């Protein structure tokens, strides 16, 4: 790779800047202001392998439950019940933040956000709630991607664990605008690339 090309790539990487992803622990987090809410109201109960609700598609083995199991897990009926394995939540358009109520986990779980290129943005560990929290063993977990964009997230459960989720929230947030200094760096790099090619011609 030529030195100028290396310099151009370095400049573009610097201009992009870090995303500063952070965990979300409450539905009232500012990153979720104006968020879309999915609480499974109106969804027919029963087993599913895939379910699309608006901009969100959930895949994996799960059940939509309207019984007392939701209450036991600290969620209101109806809710989503999972019995081990992994769930994938995919957005039709990239989002900047999401969160959901998770209840009655007996083992720690990994909540991981990915960008459109399958790169990991952030992972939040959901603890063993039954051992560490008072009844009904429920809390809100999520990820604020900062300047990054979330295409999907996964909840990886230990096999055989039984838990529920409800009140999924997500937001596209504001479209980030590059800072003037970053734009200037990119502009200088592109001008330099054009000048270099003219000299070689």
From TrEMBL:
Keyword set includes Hydrolase: no
Leader sequence segment: 1-21
The keyword RNA-binding appears for this protein: no
Alphabetical UniProt keywords: Signal
InterPro entries: Ice-binding_C
Ice-binding protein C-terminal domain sequence ranges: 176-198
Tree of life domain: Bacteria
One Pfam short name: PEP-CTERM
Protein name, as recorded: PEP-CTERM sorting domain-containing protein
């Amino acid at each position: 790779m030529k030195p100028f090309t290396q310099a151009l790539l370095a400049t573009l990487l610097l201009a992009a800047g870090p995303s500063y992803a952070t965990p979300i622990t409450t539905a009232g987090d500012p990153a979720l202001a104006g968020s879309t809410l999915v609480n499974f109201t109106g969804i027919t109960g029963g087993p599913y392998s895939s379910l699309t609700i608006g901009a969100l598609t959930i895949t994996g083995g799960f059940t939509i439950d309207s019984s007392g199991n939701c209450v036991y897990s600290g969620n209101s009926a109806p809710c989503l019940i999972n019995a081990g394995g992994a769930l994938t939540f995919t957005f039709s358009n990239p989002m900047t933040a999401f969160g959901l109520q998770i209840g009655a986990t007996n083992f720690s779980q990994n909540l991981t956000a990915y960008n459109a290129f399958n790169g990991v943005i952030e992972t939040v560990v959901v603890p063993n709630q039954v051992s560490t929290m008072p009844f009904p063993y429920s809390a809100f977990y999520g990820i604020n991607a900062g300047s990054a964009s979330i295409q999907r997230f996964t909840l990886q459960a230990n096999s055989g664990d039984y838990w529920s989720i409800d009140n999924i929230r997500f937001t596209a947030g504001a479209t980030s605008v590059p800072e003037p200094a970053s734009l200037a760096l990119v502009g200088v790099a592109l001008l330099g690339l054009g000048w270099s090619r003219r000299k070689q011609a």
